[in-house]
Amino acid sequence: MISPYRLLHFTRCLAVAAILVGSSVNGDDSPPVAEISEADLVHQYRERCDYVIDQTVANTDPNDLTRGSNFTIAANLFRGANLDWARERLRLSNDPPTGAMFWMHPMALLMHVGREELNEDDWAFIRELWRTYFPYRGDTENHWVMYYVSLYLVAEMFPDAGPEAWYNGKSSVEIMADAKEFILDWMRITTSYGQGEYDSPNYIE
User: Distance from CA of residue 53 to its chain's centroid?
Assistant: First the structure.
């Protein structure tokens, strides 16, 4: 029996094929695509980043402490906006922390972009989270990448921290060594053979 997903995918393929054949028969030649320099691509990418960050800050209600993820907090810290809200929301949204590697990723971002705005109390709160919260590593390729990259970036910020500072009982040096080993091996496999998880023909199923 054909699954609904495969049937939908097949139908879309037929529709695209019909459009392409029709264009060919009617002599509908598309105009050549203008080449864009690498510098222009980077500039456009940065513009989109700035737009998303600015929109996130603009949509932040500093009087509402019930809404806002770590990504939202990071955007406000990066822009130096709504700092009182950001500090309070940081504590409320991480009491307790949840999300495993999906918590680690935005928290690492928040820590890096908030270096200039986070005070000693903020850092003490964040360090305690990394000491007591034990995030699940996950069991898929992208989860492992998020887990180890986040760990490496955060441990790198405190290179002299001992095992007592981290939930897994390892020092920052040990954490970075473990993470680096996985990241380099994943890069080797991905560039040599591809990503096994996303190359799977039945991943979505």
Answer: 14
Place of tokens 């989270």: 129
Radius of gyration of the chain (CA): 23
Whether residue 57 is predicted with pLDDT greater than 90 in this model: the reply is yes
Indicate the angle between helix axes 101-113 and 120-132, nearest 10 degrees. 160
| pTM of structure | 0.78
**Cα 182 to chain centroid, rounded:** 18
The Cβ of residue 181 has, within 10 Å, a number of other Cβ atoms equal to 11
pLDDT of residue 18: 47
Measuring CA to CA, how many Å separate 156 from each of 26, 115, 134, 138? Answer: 59, 14, 18, 22
CB 87 within 8 A of CB 123: no
